[in-house]
Amino acid sequence: MPVRQLYVFDAYGTLFDVHSAVARHAGEIGPQAAALSDLWRTKQLEYTWVRSLSWRYCDFGSLTEQALDYAAARCGGIGTDLRAKLLEAYSRLDAFADVGPTLDALRAQGAKTAILSNGTHAMLETATRSAGLENRLDAILSVDVLRVYKTTPAAYALVGGHFGLPPAEVTFLSSNRWDIAGAAAFGFRCIWVNRMGLPEEYAELAPEAVVRSLDGLLALDLA
C-alpha cells in the first residue's frame, strides 16, 4: 500500500479493548458483566460530551471512575475491592492483536504514528507501556492540555501543532464513528475502524475508507 506521512490513532476502542477490563473479572461480577461493561463505556463517553458542552472539564480518569460507579449501581452494585480491580484493569487494557503488527508495518515503511486521545497523558503512557507499544509511537497527544474533549476542533488541531502538518496530510483512524465525524469535519483524511460492524451514520462527514480491523489498513490502496 502507498504509505502516507502520518497516521494518528484514537486510543480507547481503536488500539485498546475497552471491554477487556471487565472481561478479566467477569466471573466475579456475574451475569451482569457484559451489561456493566457496555454501560460503563456509554456513560464515560456521555460524560465527556456533557463536560465539554457545559465548559465544566473533569479529566478522563475521573470520568472513568464516575462512569463505573454509575454502571455498577445500575447493575446491582460491586464491592470496593472489585471496583479497585476494575479501575486497575482499565489502566492496563489489552491492545487488540492487530495493533502491534500494524504500527510496525507503517513505521517500517517510513510513516510516523501517534495517538490522539481523550485519556490523560499519564493514562496513555501506562496503557501503551503495559501493551508494549511505547516504542512504536512518535507522539502521544492528550486533550487534557486543552481541558476539553473531542470532537472540538481544538483537539484535532493538537496534531498539526505537534507535527507541523496541515489537516489534509493527516490520516486519522478511530473505531468511534462520532470521532471520525469530528476529525472529518476538521479536515483529516479518515479511516473508520468499524470493529463491531456498526451501521453507518453522519453521512455528511464520511470516512475515506472503512475497515473491520487495523489489518485492513495495510490492504487499502491509498493515493
Please provide a brief summary of the model.
The protein is an alpha/beta fold. It has two domains: 137 residues, 3-Layer(aba) Sandwich (Rossmann fold), CATH 3.40.50; 72 residues, DNA polymerase, domain 1, CATH 1.10.150.
Largest sheet, strands/sense/barrel: 6 strands, parallel
Helical content stands at: 40-55%
Q: How many domain units?
A: 2
What is the arithmetic mean of pLDDT? Answer: 96
Q: How many helix segments?
A: 10
Q: Name the structural class.
A: alpha/beta
E-strand count? 6
CATH class of the largest domain, anyone? Alpha Beta
What is the CATH topology assignment of the largest domain?
Rossmann fold
Oligomer: single chain
Please trace the helix and strand order, writing H or E for each element: EHHHHHHEHEHEHEEH
CATH homologous superfamily heading of the largest domain: HAD superfamily/HAD-like
Low-confidence stretches: none
Q: Terminal Cα separation, in Å?
A: 9 Å
- The portion of residues forming beta strands comes to 5-15%
Shape: globular
Q: Topology of this structure?
A:
Elements: E1 6-9, H1 20-24, H2 26-29, H3 33-53, H4 60-74, H5 80-91, H6 99-108, E2 112-117, H7 121-130, E3 139-142, H8 153-163, E4 170-174, H9 177-186, E5 189-193, E6 209-211, H10 215-219
Parallel strand pairs: 1-2, 1-4, 2-3, 4-5, 5-6
